[in-house]
């Protein structure tokens, strides 16, 4: 039964406590709804409409003329950069995502141990999440021109990996194929980026590791399990749901990185007032992202262990 409004001594109705709580909730949701409609849904619908239109800029307004799929055909068949950039982003995401997951899980296992300075170490790995703004990341990764710091290359030399070839020769590693050498060089040059983009994943893996019951370790020790066996038979199954969550997060984070070439191309088209083609690029990119997430989820979900199964 719903609570009826109470009456004061003067005959006025007083709103019940449950009703007041409901009104507070509606108030907060109302603020979110207004923001979502004004700043998300309306621009989203406009972008979809622009992608099917020939958009021209008139004084004080945008004039649209429906052109069907022409913008999509132009983007896919005539644009000299878009498909190339899209392929490069897909390839980069394909090789960088597993490395980020492996690195973040490795660091999370270490940070889950008890040692002096553990809190400081956790803060160091999470620090990029706090300061990972576009200009900061571009400066430390060497992209100086876009930030107005063209003369500050010395700030990024500490993060470079130009001596990989000499290191491989020093270790006696010779005779690798050109493709393997290029891959190793690419990974080495992106080591800082991999570490920089692993903060959230490390935190999620830490949360999963701390949910492993102490009884599981005690039982493994009684059975004489080694650390390697404990990792694969206890730790890995417990954190596997977070592997899927981190995988989806990493894929989305890579695709939506404002520094990737596709995002830069869309921004460049928008700056040139080619709103129709820019919108078509964005919606094609959105479809690719959704397809990639769906494929990844369908493949990885088969190997995920859920405790209630």
Fill in the keyword field for this structure.
single chain; 309 residues; mainly alpha; two-stranded antiparallel ribbon; two-stranded antiparallel sheet; 67% helix; extended
Structural account:
- This protein has 13 helices and 4 strands.
- By secondary structure, it is mostly helical.
- Helix 3 (82-111) packs parallel to helix 9 (199-210) and helix 3 (82-111) runs antiparallel to helix 11 (227-255).
Q: Helical content, roughly?
A: 55-70%
Task: State the end-to-end CA separation.
Answer: 38 Å
* Number of separate strands: 4
Please state roughly what percent of the residues sit in beta strands, choosing from under 5%, 5-15%, 15-25%, 25-35%, 35-45% or over 45%.
5-15%
Short description:
The chain has 309 residues and is mainly α. The protein has helices spanning 17-51, 70-78, 82-111, 118-131, 134-140, 164-170, 178-189, 191-196, 199-210, 214-222, 227-255, 261-271, 275-300; strands at residues 6-7, 13-14, 53-58, 61-66. Helix 1 (17-51) crosses helix 13, helix 2 (70-78) crosses helix 13 and helix 3 runs antiparallel to helix 11.
